[in-house]
Structures are given as structure tokens and as C-alpha cells.
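Blinded run. Sample ID left blank on purpose so nobody reads anything into the name before looking at the predicted structure. Input follows.
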Amino acid sequence: MKNLTITKNRIITGALSLFPFLFMASCGSDTPSFSLTSVEDSFLQNSDQQQVSKVDILWVVDNSGSMKASQDNLAANFNSFISNFTTENLDFQIAVTATDAFRANSSYDSFSNSSYSLFRTGDGVTDSGISIINNSTTDINSTFLTNVTIGTGGTGDERAFSSIEETINNAANSGLIRENSFLAVIIVSDEEDFSRDRLIGDFSGTAHPISRYVDALDAATGSTPEKRRYNVSSIHILDGDTACMQEQENAVPGNQGQKYGIRYEELTAATGGDNISLCSDFGVSLNTLSEGIIEALLIETFTIEREPIVSTLRVKVNGLDIPMSETNGWQYSNPGPDEYVITFTGSAVPPAGASVKISFDPLTFQE
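Blinded prediction complete.
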């Protein structure tokens, strides 16, 4: 649930019919004046640019020997992803790292090299020279194409989760996650995640729990389970999709290393991200993925300043009345002292830029 700071204007609409009078102090009296009037609070979805319109995107791309076709497919369809961000005029940053970026940590690689923790790996591929793409990048598409074509010289010991942890925590990457931004992590792999406490190439031992990486992302983004400022999505071979598995194996003759991304699906479920088939139409899927990230930025919860008479609440989005509903409407709650909250549900969550008006009769006088 997203409950962020938003712009709000208070409009006084008139006196209650049951109280057509005002209590007023006489001139010079120290007695305060009171009034009981109908109130309308106005909001604008995504109005606070510092809070909800900054998106930091980290692509974590498998750079093992079987991934060339998938990297090329991603690069060729990138415009389907980025066009939604440019259309919405969002303040975005995009970086690419690899599933073997964990090798910067000497606990995992006795020959560790700090370059692995940067947004590119050290396998000799061409670098665009731009580690973080943003709105001002001259040619966003071609720069991303260069960055995401990350090569296939990386290890087959894919540890996407450990690589995320290393990338977001390494001081050299301090510009990736900005204050008050939303972080979207996107994994692309035809393998499973093998993150564990073993040197590279040692596949023994127990995999790290998913909770370890949820905690790491919470810490890096200043999130809590109630107010999460990130999600993790994954493009992989979906669990049980035998047709996709066969397609990926046939694409690289002699390579039978592909695996279902079961752990990826566990992390996406824990963080509210999306799962996309590696065999899907990337032109369609990347558009859907970007729409999901933008949807995650939308505010679902709006706080009004006074306690309402619930039966008088009226909620409008772009001038249309929205019903009270647990599925596709709104709900009222009072989660704490002096907290009066309207939460939108399902398809009723206001779209970006929408006008939201909440009118009601207050329960008590206000000095």
C-alpha cells in the first residue's frame, strides 16, 4: 500500500442543514469561534514530483554463454519499455549490471575484481561510457543497446540476488538509488538464482533465503512492508513452462543448462513485481512491464484532515463518483489517532494526473 505525501487543497462548501447557525464570539471576547461545515479535500494523483515521479531502474542481465539471443531481443524491443516513461515525463535512471556482479565480493571469488560490482562486468565487452542513463541522455535507445548487450563471457554460476545486493550496496554505485525514488529491479535470465555462501563454481550449500534480499532492498530504499519503495520483476523461464524450456535449449545446441526460475518467482511475489516469460513477445511484455512499474507509483491511500461522518463521504475521480467497495472502489479507515484515510481498491485507483475530490460532513466542531 502506498501512502505518500501529496498536494492537497481544502475547500469549504457550505453549512450543514442540521446546523444552519454559527457559534461566534462577540467582539473583543477571548472565547474562540466554532463552525461545523461540509468539507471537500482535493488531491492530484502523482502531484508531488519528489515523492512519486522518480524511478531508478536496475537491469540484472544474465551474461552466461546461452544468453546472446535474449540480450539481443531485449535490446531490440527496449523502446516498448522506455516509451511509457518518456510519455509520462517521469524522472528516470537506468543502469545495467550482470548476474556475476557478486564476484566483487571476495567471499565469493578469491580472484575478485572491483569492476564486477560496477554497472558493467569485466569480460571485455564494449562499454557506452554512460553508466546511468537518464532523461538527458542524448540517444537513450542506442546507449541502452550497448549497455545491455553485456556479453556472454560471464560465469554459469548465476547469482542474480547476490549481484543485486552487491550492486546496490557498493559505494561506487552510490548514484543509482536516489532519495525519494522508486527502485525497479528487473532480472533477465534463462537460469535459476544460485546465491549462497560458497566460492564461485561451488554449487554445494544451501541457497540464501529470499528474506535476506528483501531485507537488503528494504534497507537500501528506506522501505518497510507497509510502505515499500521498490519491486523486483523477472524475465525468465516460468516454473513448469516446458515449451519455453525446450525453445531455449534448442536456441543454443548442446547447452542444457537452462532452469526454471523458481526463486525469481518467490522474490517477485515478496516484492510485488511481475513475472514474464523469456519466450514471450518482448515488444508486448516490456510494455506491460513498464506499465506495471508506473502503476506501482500510483498513490492508493489519501488522508483527509478531519474525522468524517462516514455516511456523508463522497469520492470523485476526474468528476466521476466512485462507489464504496472492497474490490473496485474505496474504503474508509481510522488507523490511528487523528488519521482518517480513504483507500482506493482495484481498478478504482486513480490514474496518473487524476483529480481526486473527497467531500464529507465532519463529525466534530473545529476551533
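Unblinding after everyone has recorded impressions. The two ends are 33 Å apart (CA to CA).
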